[in-house]
Amino acid sequence: MKVSLRCGIPITEFDLQHPGGFWHWVWQHNVPVTIVERVKKAGALLTAGYAAIANSVELSQTELKKLQDKRAKTKTERHQQRKAELSRRYEVDVTPEFVEKDDDGWYLQTADALLFDTGARVSDNS
After folding, report:
1. How far apart are CA 119 and CA 87, in angstroms?
2. The 3-state secondary structure of the chain, one letter per residue
3. What is the dihedral of CA 85, 86, 89, 93, to 10 degrees?
4. What is the chain's pLDDT, residue by residue, as a tens digit (126 residues)?
5. For 36, which of 42, 48, 66, 124 is 20 to 30 Å away at the CA?
6. pLDDT recorded at residue 72
7. How many CA atoms lie within 13 Å of 117's alpha carbon, on the beta-carbon side?
8. Which residues contact 22 (CB under 8 A, 6 or more apart)?
9. How far apart are CA 67 and CA 25, in angstroms?
10. In contact, 22 and 42? CB cutoff 8 Å
């Protein structure tokens, strides 16, 4: 990876297989991260060998509804919608690591384990 080459810190297959993948490697080695406004710019910086993330805007309930109703969405709009929906569903700050864990069902499994004693169950239908 270009970020690894630019930093002079090797990234191994073991690093990439970690649940946090590349971003865990960035955190573990304290690689500087540039925060930008647009996903496209973050992607361009990553391609150039710089660790970068986009700081997407929090959507209001009205903006989220408008986006949910929109048929054709840009990649940025899809990311904004996903972040807003996860933030509202779980009432947490959404990070790239959280999205990855949600994709793997981690948060839902953890919530089930925490609610086990009460007899309540969190399901995909709630």
Report:
1. 25
2. CHHHHHHCCCCCHHHHHCCCHHHHHHHHCCCCEEEECCHHHHHHHHHHCCEEEECCCCCCHHHHHHHHHCCCCCHHHHHHHHHHHHHHHHCCCCCHHHHHHHHCCHHHHHHHHHHHHHCCCCCCCC
3. -120
4. 789 999 899 998 888 888 888 888 998 999 999 888 776 788 888 889 999 887 767 788 999 999 999 999 888 788 888 888 888 887 777 777 777 777 777 766 666 655 554 454 445 444
5. 66
6. 94
7. 1
8. 1, 3, 11, 15, 16
9. 33
10. no
> What is the residue whose two structure tokens read 């960035």?
26
What number of residues does the chain have?
Answer: 126
Sequence letter at residue 77:
E
Instruction: Give the tokens for residue 88.
Output: 């509202």
